[in-house]
Every structure is written in structure tokens, then in C-alpha cells.
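Q: Given only this backbone (204 positions), what sequence would you predict?
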């Protein structure tokens, strides 16, 4: 890769057991472990990517989804560039908890609710036969609540894992472009025309 790469902090959030660590390991190392252990606190891995000709170091922060680790994960939300809200398509509760995860992220990252922020929604374990959340339900939630793209992934068989992470970077760049400040329009003054100074007076 040539050129300097920009560091991007990507935070993975979602209920315990939905597959956050597995998604990170699939994306970074192309590995899957059926005996994955619960994360305690946070862990991160870096991955170099090139998206639309730009180089990025994605620093992926995998957080502990279990409630009892809340105080260990929330200090790491600040400064995030992207947030991936994750659930498992065979676990209704993990889908219903998405609004809670979004609120928790915005609060601890100190981002105003409603401010544009690149969220990506990931429905993991799409290889499992016992699905509880349809793609339509998830898509509909995404457009109504987070204005975010939705990806169905499997960390187990690698379906859409690369696509979800790479699209997260494109989404962030798109939003940055939309937010770019347009130059302020000023009324030009024709200096060639002499104007009488205001409050001018004669003191002779
Ligand atoms: N079938 C299937 N199993 C998966 C998939 N992703 C993860 N798993 C399994 O689900 C279990 C939990 O995965 P983790 O990656 O540890 O889940 P987590 O979200 O990081 O969990 P916490 O660390 O507790 O927050 C493990 O047994 C994984 O092997 C997937 O896409 N398909």
C-alpha cells in the first residue's frame, strides 16, 4: 500500500454472544473459532484496507456485550469514527436491544442524538437455520431508526463480513462529504465605486 493511511476507530457493539469477536477475527485474520469465549472489557485489532483508492488503518474495538461489563467498555466509545451495531438473526432479544446499544453509544461517545453519525447494522449468524428476525424486519428498523445500511453476515462461513466492514468505511466517507462545510457566500462590494464615508464631517 502506498501513501499515509488514516486511522479509523471502529466500535463493535451488541449483546453478548452475537458474534462480535468472531466478526473481528474473521475480518482481520480470516479465522473462525467455534469455541469463542466472552470478551471481558475490550480488545482491539488493526487491519489495513484500501477503499476507493484511500488507505486506512481500521482499528476495530471489540467490546464485551454482557451487561456486567458495561463500565469496562463504555470509556472506549469516545473518538469512534464508525459504530457497528450487531445482533444475531436467530436471537430476537439481541435485535430488540439495538436501540439500547445505540443510546449507550451516543451517550458515552458524547454525540448528540440525531446528529449524523455512521452507524452500520449487522445481523450476524445468517448461516443458522433457526432465524427469528427476517431481513425485511431488520431493513425496516434500520431505515426508521438509524438511517444506516444493513448487512447480514456469517462469521462462520465468512458471508458478507468483508463487505460490511469495507462498506462501513465508504459510508463514513460519504457522510463526511455530505457534512463538508460549503464556503460562506458573501455579497461582493464593488470597490471601484467611491463611496462617501459615513459620518464624515468637515472641521475647517
Ligand atoms: N453459526 C454461527 N456461529 C457464530 C457466528 N459468529 C459467532 N458464532 C458463535 O457464537 C458464539 C459467540 O461468539 P462471540 O464472537 O464470542 O460473541 P461476542 O458477541 O463477541 O460475545 P461477547 O464477547 O460476550 O460480547 C461462539 O460460539 C461463536 O463461535 C456465526 O456467524 N455463525
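A: Predicted residues:
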Amino acid at each position: 500500500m502506498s501513501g499515509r493511511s488514516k486511522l479509523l476507530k471502529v466500535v463493535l457493539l451488541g449483546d453478548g454472544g452475537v458474534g462480535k469477536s468472531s466478526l473481528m477475527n474473521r475480518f482481520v485474520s480470516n479465522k473462525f473459532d467455534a469455541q469463542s469465549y466472552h470478551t471481558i472489557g475490550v480488545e482491539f485489532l488493526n487491519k489495513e484496507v484500501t477503499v476507493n483508492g484511500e488507505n486506512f488503518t481500521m482499528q476495530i474495538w471489540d467490546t464485551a456485550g454482557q451487561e456486567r461489563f458495561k463500565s469496562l467498555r463504555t470509556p472506549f466509545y469516545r473518538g469512534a469514527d464508525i459504530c457497528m451495531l450487531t445482533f444475531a438473526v436467530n436471537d430476537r432479544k439481541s435485535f430488540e436491544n439495538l436501540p439500547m446499544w445505540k443510546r449507550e453509544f451516543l451517550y458515552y461517545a458524547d454525540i448528540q442524538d440525531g446528529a449524523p453519525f455512521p452507524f452500520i447494522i449487522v445481523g450476524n449468524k445468517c448461516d443458522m437455520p433457526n432465524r427469528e428476525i427476517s431481513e425485511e424486519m431488520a431493513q425496516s428498523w434500520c431505515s426508521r431508526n438509524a438511517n444506516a445500511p444493513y448487512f447480514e453476515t456469517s462469521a462462520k462461513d465468512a458471508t458478507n463480513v468483508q463487505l460490511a466492514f469495507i462498506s462501513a468505511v465508504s459510508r463514513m466517507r460519504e457522510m463526511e462529504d455530505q457534512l463538508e462545510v460549503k464556503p460562506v457566500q458573501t455579497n461582493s462590494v464593488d470597490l471601484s465605486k467611491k463611496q462617501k464615508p459615513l459620518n464624515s464631517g468637515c472641521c475647517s
